[in-house]
Write a structure and sequence with these properties.
Layout (H helix, E strand, L loop, with lengths): L7 E5 L1 H8 L7 H9 L2 E5 L1 H12 L9 H14 E3 L20 H10 L3 E3 L3 H4 L10 E3 L1 H14 L3
Parallel strand pairs: 1-2, 1-4, 2-3, 4-5
Helix pairs in contact: 1-4, 2-7, 3-4
C-alpha cells in the first residue's frame, strides 16, 4: 500500500490567488492541481478574503472583464480555501514585521494556521524569507511548484 502524503497547509497571497483563479497561469498548474487534489489546503481569513474581494470588485482591475467572471474566481478560490475564524488557530507568535503593513496579515495568518508555506509574489514579503523566527517557508509560486513537482517524483507519481 502506498503511504498517503500528509496535506500541506499553505497561505496564498492575493496576487497568487489572482494568478490561479483569474489569469489561470499555466506555470502554476501543479499548484492548482494540488489544491484540487487536496494535497494542499489554502488557509484564508476574513481580512485576506476582504482584500481579494476588494481587488476583484475594483473598477480598475481588469475593466474589460465582466463582474460575474470576477465573482466566479472568488467562488472557485473559496471552494479550495479553509477560513480560519478570528481567535482560532495557533497562538499569536512574535513575527518579524513586514515593511508593508498590508502584507503582515498574510504572515500572521500563516503562523496562526500552522502553514508550511506562505506563497507570495510580493517583493517585501519575499525579502523576509531568510528572516530568523519564521515558522513557515516563504516561497515564490514557482518555488512552490518546484517543491510540489519534487514531492510528486519522490512519491512515484
Amino acid at each position: 500500500m502506498t503511504p498517503v502524503a500528509p496535506v500541506l497547509p499553505v497561505v496564498l497571497d492575493t496576487n497568487v490567488v489572482l494568478d490561479l483563479y483569474v489569469f489561470e497561469d499555466p506555470a502554476l498548474r501543479e499548484l492548482h492541481q494540488a489544491l484540487r487534489d487536496g494535497r494542499l489546503v489554502a488557509w484564508a481569513e476574513d481580512a485576506t478574503l476582504v482584500e481579494l474581494g476588494y481587488v476583484l470588485a475594483s473598477r480598475h482591475f481588469l475593466p474589460g472583464r465582466a463582474q460575474d467572471t470576477r465573482s466566479t474566481a472568488l467562488a472557485r478560490y473559496r471552494e479550495h480555501a479553509r477560513v480560519l475564524p478570528a481567535g482560532e488557530g495557533n497562538p499569536a507568535l512574535e513575527l518579524p514585521r513586514c515593511k508593508d503593513r498590508d502584507d503582515q496579515k498574510f504572515l500572521v495568518l500563516a503562523a496562526r494556521a500552522g502553514a508550511s508555506w506562505l506563497v507570495s509574489k510580493d517583493k517585501r514579503v519575499l525579502s523576509m524569507a531568510d528572516r530568523h523566527g519564521m515558522p513557515f517557508l516563504i516561497l515564490t509560486p514557482r518555488q512552490a511548484v518546484a517543491r510540489l513537482s519534487a514531492q510528486a517524483l519522490e512519491a512515484g507519481r
